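Our platform keeps sequence and structure together, in a single record for each protein. Such a record has a labelled line for the sequence and another for the backbone structure tokens. Nothing more is needed to write down the fold, since each code stands for a local backbone conformation. For reference, a complete record is included directly beneath this paragraph:
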Amino acid sequence: MEAAFDGGRVTSDGGLALLRELTMRSGVIRQFAACFTDHRDPDRIEHTVEELLAQRVLGIICGYEDLNDHERLRDDALLALAVGKTDVTGEDRKRERDRGHALAGKSTLNRLELAAPIVDGAERYKKISYDDHAIERLFVTHFLDARDDEPPKEIILDLDATDDPIHGEQEGRHFHGFYGHYCYLPLYVFCGEFLLGAALNTADVAPGKQAVEELERIVAQILARWPDVRIIVRGDSGFCNDEIMAWCEAGGIDYILGLAKNSRLSAEIADEMAAAKAEHAHTGEKARVFKDFRYKTRDSWTRERRVVGKAEYITDKENPRFVATTLSSEEWPAQALYEDLYCARGEMRTASRSSSSASSPTAPARTRSAATSCACGSRPSPT
């Protein structure tokens, strides 16, 4: 008699069955694979590009961000089923190289991630190449297709940059004082739950440096499908620069952006802060008083703009905040503008922190960054 307690073939990733249905219905991985060109000999390959991408994206969704994880995952029958393999155990493999393994190992996936962009066929020796512009368009197309039956009258594009920690000597590593560790600082553009764009930057690059470039292509693609939709750009103080605001104003795009405090701004709401302090002393609760005013920096802004200041006093501490906006006071009074519209961006920041690329911000890392973005973009339920 033999007693075994290994449980046989068990998995804690039961959600893969649902993810398989989600990705099949949305077609996002199939569309992602269409952005690649496979120059390999079809008679000598065991895993198609779509299967490799599905394995990588589904692995990331399940929390397996490291390629080394796939040395074990290549024998995971449920992941193989989700990828679309018919031989989920690998027992029917005929090729000696991968006999007994249903999925690709870390080396094969690494070669996929080192794929090069298509540049007049010059990088064909890489065997697998990708169309960078097609990948960029993919995420916006996915968003548009999900809402195309009933185009919205208004959408909000959220800008955010968040830390992507690194733990080695990767190219471009930089110590970020705010986050307190070495990291990259990718830029994300979201609309609700949908990821529309991701640019992997080093941490010494200002968050708003690439924002206009990303907004230009995203807004153009949206307006080409929905010419009448109203667009509002929302972001923190890292994006409140004249280039972004002037671009929005020139294109008829509204914005609401956090504005870093300074002595002039603090002086502007001094009376409101005194009133908030007095209210706090009377009630013992935090107190807020808002002020709507016009403001222009001494050098960096080319024009005067509407600014809303929040004078807040909490637990013996002043907490002033400011936002700059094109939205009118008739449509959005000061308090509602700040509390209901600007503060709602907190939900988007949670989404941006759920994606991590953990790679180098150079051209060969585009595939890994895109795979991470595809994983993030596959999470919302189909509309």
